[in-house]
UvrABC system protein C
Amino acid sequence: MPDPSTYRPAAGTIPDAPGVYKFRDPGGRVIYVGKAKSLRSRLNSYFADVSSLHPRTRQMVTTAGGVEWTVVSTEVEALQLEYNWIKEFDPRFNVRYRDDKSYPVLAATLHEDFPRLHVYRGPRRKGVRYFGPYAHAWAIRETLDLLLRVFPARTCSKGVFRRHGQIGRPCLLGYIGKCSAPCVGRVDQDEHRAIVEDFCDFLSGKTDAMVRRLEKEMAAAAEELEFERAARLRDDIGALKRAMEKQAVVLGDGTDADVVAFSFDDLEAAVQVFHVRGGRVRGQRGWVIDRIDDGDEQSAVASLVDRFLSQFYGDQVDSEESTDGSPVPREVLVPELPADAEAVADWLGGLRGGKVALRVPQRGDKRALMETVERNAKEAFTQHKLRRAGDLTARSAALQQLQDDLGLDTAPLRIECVDISHHQGTDVVGSLVVFEDGLARKSEYRRFALREAATEGDVASIAEVVRRRFAKYRDGAPEQAEPGTPPGAPPGIDPDTGKPKRFAYPPNLLVVDGAGPQANAAADVLADLGITDVAVIGIAKRLEEIWLPADPDPVILARNSEAMYLMQRVRDESHRFAIGYHRQKRSKNLLTSALDDIPGLGQGRRAVLIKHFGSLKRLRAASLEEIGGVPGIGPGTAQAVHSALAGEAPARGKAEEQQ
């Protein structure tokens, strides 16, 4: 494995200017391409302490055998050169925004004498107009079937078109009015092209003008007593409106925009793009990619936006891929602007041949649409993480990989994970989740309200949870079985119910949310209790590192391995369970504290009110009669509670707004 210090450029030789750089492996192959405002600042960041780098960046610099750079005059030139080099060299460590499938589009072959409408997948060609992409081919066929009665254009292949021209009879679509039958001369070349161009205009967003024109023709036909033609136009208008209803209006001003959002962790990111044309969503795309930290100081979201814009639109222009006209819309809405936003906007404008606005929506319809795209990105990321959870083969592979990577005696068929949640040291709670055979066993989840170590930090809190959980297991061990247990009864089974006791079985693997100190604390507790058959690890949130007790270096699981996916699921489930309990406990404590100083309201009555209303917000909103109707609360006490909460509501509400 190459050492980055062996190929680090000499001090002062890297120019402090914008440019593009390439990392090459010892064989000379380009493995990474990047751009920078300042080559000196960016490249020096790669040669910092290797252990402090992002895992993917660390792998890249230890794989490379050299670095070289090219100085340019502007950031726009750097963007263009970076994209060209990525396309030319296809570096393995650069993220490529390629679909995991080929999305279908609706193609209109305008370069042919008699243009054809059809579903298409594959590389883009000159002279063909594309609409989409669509998520499913059936969506295109459904829309096309609706519109053919209004725009009866040719949809058949060249062979079918030629054959029906030779026999002099149209196909079935020609007989039922869904094709103008240019093959047999019912319309000439110019008339058929006009039909196809009207179809393209309609899909391009010129819907209102088309409907108004047909309505005028319908009215004129009715005035001339051509009722059959008027009825046919009426049906055509209905078909157009049904097609329009399938594409909901999301931006009332008819904006052409792409809306981009991300959901990510330290290793991967999910990207979602909504293509909006004429105010309507015309298509949607999504990717899940590996993240790489290129050493820039900008935020993670800004870095993702920067990489996405330069590669996605460059690929679209090169492939002539377009939802309508130029592949670059007039406006691109992003969650955060990249550091070189002006340069990126100028570069996109050059691709479009006109000005492109790069914006972060703050309010109104555009902000609401951005939130929708963000929800889709989060859902896609969640599905990506869980996509193999139900696969028995994948779960078995994950458990086997954990056994091999962690050096366990057996596969960890039962995994328990401990997490701590609190708010600035208050309302400290712990969670314990259980996974058996790689699947969550929610009936055995446990939560802990921490008392002893609540003010001593996460390490002490984890130690308390582990001590309380395994004290139960130790007390139920066979050598300390309860009196009256029948001889030969299975350990851990309640003799009365025949069901397992709480905490009766130990895990093969105990996971704690944290790094070395947390893992050491859990291992020390198990040693004090005399439990030696449970393996302990800690999983750090930031880089998904696995820490073994008393080991100075972490274990790094492969990012795309089944073992890593399983560890992420276990950790995330424990975190979710802990946060839910913390929020519930904190809400009750807020209600209790608000009732502490009310005269005549003791602990018992406070508990009754808490159980009845559930939250402080509901109790504040309750009327005097509703409070008085709670069992055990008399009229005087109800009046005191109502007056006290009504008097404090404005002040407390103001304080909450300030928070």
About this structure: DSSP finds 20 helices and 18 strands in the chain. Confidence is low (pLDDT under 50) at residues 320-324, 477-490, 648-659.
